[in-house]
Amino acid sequence: MALLRNASTKCLKDLDASSAAAAANKLKGATIDYTYGPTPLVGADGTFANGAAAAQSDSSTNTIYLNLNYGWLNPTNVTFNTASGGSYTANWVAAVGAYVGDPSLTVTQYYELILIHETGHLLGVPQETTNAYDTAIFNDCIKGH
Amino acid sequence: VLTVCEALRDIGLYAGRDVVIVGVSNWAFEGSFMHEKCEPDDRIAILGHRWLSAIELGRADPQASATESFPVDESVLREKLTHVRDYNSAERRGGQPQGSEVQGQLRLSLSGVWVAAYGRLESPSKLKEPVPPTASNSRNTPGNGYGANGSVPARLRVIESRSIPPRDP
Predict the structure, then answer these.
(1) d(Cα B60, Cα B50) in Å, to the nearest integer?
(2) Is the Cβ–Cβ distance between A129 and B35 less than 8 Å?
(3) pLDDT at B53
(4) How far apart are the first and last CA of chain B?
(5) Could you tell me how many CB contacts below 8 A there are between chain A and chain B?
(6) Which residues of A touch B (CB under 8 A)?
(7) Percent of chain B with pLDDT over 70
């Protein structure tokens, strides 16, 4: 919450937020819904195959949904199902760190990334289709802030 | 076999049909999405409105996945991908997709993965675009598409997908 209250101009632009107070109040007023959703399934090629979501938001109800089976409870040790019927565990924080361009992403920063990311969607940011949105949030709202 | 742009330009024709779509796939917290830049603003006109040129990748009924096999040879998929501008530049660059992590034998691929996905394309018959907040109206009204704020106009219920990595130059 403190990150949003003290958000930089660039961070607020990433989130389509009119002000730091608007961004912080959006998250403060949101309902966080924890669910045991689908476990992510990884194909033989390493891509995600079952459309499982780690987190989602519904701006009509101002709700953020967090999937407890997808890295919320213990994100450095996440179990993935594989297409061959097995499973394996991975340091999901490290994978997301690589995705946003900083392999040293911490667990706290990972949680911040998810919540700020979904707050942006509640504020009106459309679905992202590349890593640009998360990279911008990490650099403008989290890293060094 | 369609590109993302071809599928979205004629979404009324292809919705409800089994198709193969080729393009680049990216992971997001909300799921996986195929994307292609169809027009300079990264949007595409559908029924008079500007939509993200993207397709959500969902999961087909497990029974369909178990009984249907991929209907097209790799040579056909690669030929189709030559019509996608970014694939040609990716082939010239070569190398691995970004954002991947080696975990034993399995490499997680989060970003920039070239795939061919086979499944049933779906889209609401009457697409309603999201209305983001403005200076005069602070309300954020989601659309009835897919992904965050219902902003993605179509979803593919994937029966099977395969990677088509660019060949090294």
Answers:
(1) 27
(2) yes
(3) 97
(4) 25
(5) 138
(6) 16, 18, 42-43, 45-60, 82, 88, 90-91, 94-96, 98-99, 114, 117-118, 121-131, 134
(7) 87
H-assigned helices in A1-145: 2-5, 9-14, 20-28, 92-99, 107-122, 132-137
Query: How far is it, in rounded angstroms, from Cα A56 to Cα A72?
Result: 13
CB contact under 8 A, B30 and A60: no
**A87-130 pLDDT, tens digit each:** 988 999 999 999 999 999 999 999 999 999 999 999 999 999 99
Indicate the range of A11-15, A20-24, A45-49, B148-152 predicted with least confidence.
Answer: A45-49
Report yes or no: B70 at the A interface, CB cutoff 8 Å: no
Tens digit of pLDDT for each residue in A2-11?
Answer: 889 899 999 9
Q: How large is the angle between the packed helices A20-28 and A107-122, nearest 10 degrees? A: 100
Q: Does residue B128 have a pLDDT over 60?
A: yes
pTM over 0.90: yes
| B83, B161 Cβ separation under 8 angstroms | no
Other C-beta atoms lying within 10 Å of the C-beta of residue A68: 12
Percent of chain B predicted with pLDDT > 90: 61
Tokens read off for A130? 């590349």
**How far are the Cα atoms of A25, A97, B35, B159 from residue A2, in angstroms, in the given order?**
11, 22, 34, 44
Distance separating alpha carbons of residues B52 and B36, to the nearest angstrom: 9
CA dist., res. B149 & res. B141, Å (int): 8
* Contact list, A98 vs chain B (CB under 8 Å): 98-101, 110
Say which DSSP state B148 is in.
G
CA–CA gap between residue A20 and residue B129 (Å, rounded): 27
